[in-house]
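To whoever is on call:

I kicked off a structure prediction for a single chain this morning and the downstream step that reads the tokens threw a length-mismatch warning. I double-checked the sequence; it's 195 residues and nothing unusual in it as far as I can see. Pasting both halves so you can look.
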Amino acid sequence: MAGKGEGPAIGIDLGTTYSCVGVWQHDRIEIIANDQGNRTTPSYVAFTDSERLIGDAAKNQVAMNPINTVFDAKRLIGRRFSDASVQSDMKLWPFKIIPGPADKPMIVVSYKGEEKQFAAEEISSMVLIKMREIAEAYLGVTIKNDVVTVPAYFNDSQRQATKDAGVIAGLNATSVGEKNYFRGESYCWRHPSWW
């Protein structure tokens, strides 16, 4: 439940390649379009000499700035640098990954002329902030509470890292749950006679 002075809780599908945000209103879930009119937003974050870009703006410039454009951060979240999946995925990405403290994979980019390192949670938090901003622009209220979906195969470390991304983004992650669970819950809300 949203606290006093806060807007409704939003639902965010933090995807590997695209993310979307929705809100329950008018007795249904409404998926909110971004400033480009799209109901999905690329899960991309780009760093330049002058700014940070998120979503469509980041994806649109990837060909000109590949080593500083981060995508697929969800593949790193809650994992270790030494994990076989991380080592395999690194070969496909133009951006640099190095081992950080406790074997955490760190993404290395150049931002405003300086080398910066970000954890996957930090990159994901930037996407979550963008999704919150999309919802706030549409609803005209401040949003603090959210529910974020995660794949059923996520382990506890990946779920916690996703919650941490929400905290970094300034959101009160009321729940981190599996997509299929939320789909079922949505069906029950839309069809109360079913239960």
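Update from on-call: the warning came from a stale cache, not from the record. Cleared it. Sanity check on the structure: The CA atoms of residues 34 and 137 lie 9 Å apart.
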